[in-house]
Amino acid sequence: MDQWIKKHRIFSGFVAFILVFGLFVHFYLHAYLIRYVNHKLNESRDYKSHLDDIGIHLWRGAYSIERLNVLKRNGDATIPFFKADTIDISVQWKELFHRHIVAKVILRGPQINFISSDNKEIQQTKADAHWQDQIQSLIPFKLNYVRVFGGSIHWLDPQSDPPMDIYLRDLDVYAYNLTNSERLSSTLAATVTGKATVMRDGDLHFEATADPYEKMPTFKAKLVIEHLGLPQLNTFFKKYVAIEVHDGTFSLYSELAASKGDLKGYVKPLMDHLDTMNLKPEKKRASEVIKGTLVQILATLLTNNPKDRLGSRLEVTGRFDRPGVNKWAAFTSALYNAFIHALPASLEHTLNLKVPS
Predict the structure, then answer these.
(1) Residue 24, CA distances (Å) to 19, 21, 30, 248, 351 in order
(2) Which of 18, 76, 97, 239 is such that its CA lies 20 to 30 A from the CA of 214?
(3) pTM tops 0.90, yes or no
């Protein structure tokens, strides 16, 4: 009996030591990670960051950043460039069986806000490369898997009249095999698929396949937007083309491919049943009257009457970092749509590019 009690005390003491040691490690890691992550995120010259908390998940080799906000350092911008409810960074355990140590990242509620304004003090259109490097330094291993739930992207001008907010919401992205680690799987290609809602009713779908072994971008991708009500974009139309839209729908079909940095493809924007109207007189300037009138005349001339469709096909060529659009081909495509045959509201499936399969 005494021996049993002695063994029980030894076992209880061992368990208590493990618990105390685990708590010590947990709290030490918690404090260390908060300092480390805050330091890394605030090394950027252009953006400052704040997070509410760090979550430690030792049993699955993970930590999570809670309620992250990234704000522009200089100027008067008060809208975060980036924010997220949770960023979960962990080891992808199944890849250990393939003898690869890789990471997966799950983002919940991420939001990116681009501000395009005449006021340079509030403008924010891109993150500096240094800040992107700091984000990558938070991931302990090569990134192999990314999942996004409930994301949104906004294109804003809070000082336009009325304030502009063009957005997509409910962004759901699934990206896997980004390091080409699954050598035993049916594909060696990195794959990204996603969907979102544009404004209230536009459907967006995209997918891309890439070769992560190539140093220069090598990929093929397609994107489709359909059923987007044009009146929802009136803040954009008023700001850039000085018109209002009473009715109509917008669609966009695009396929792009790059081989070692050489880019080719097309973007095909279409507007069906477009019905425009003049800006209210009290909101017009002389330049807006001229611009709006010219836009309406061109829209009327270039609309295919049987289909009531306005559109063009923009050829994209050049290097990935310096893409170009053939303007003459875009104009002749608009003429073809208007006077010969309406452009089809569909993908063309004409691009061929070899990627791992």
Answers:
(1) 9, 5, 10, 62, 57
(2) 97
(3) no
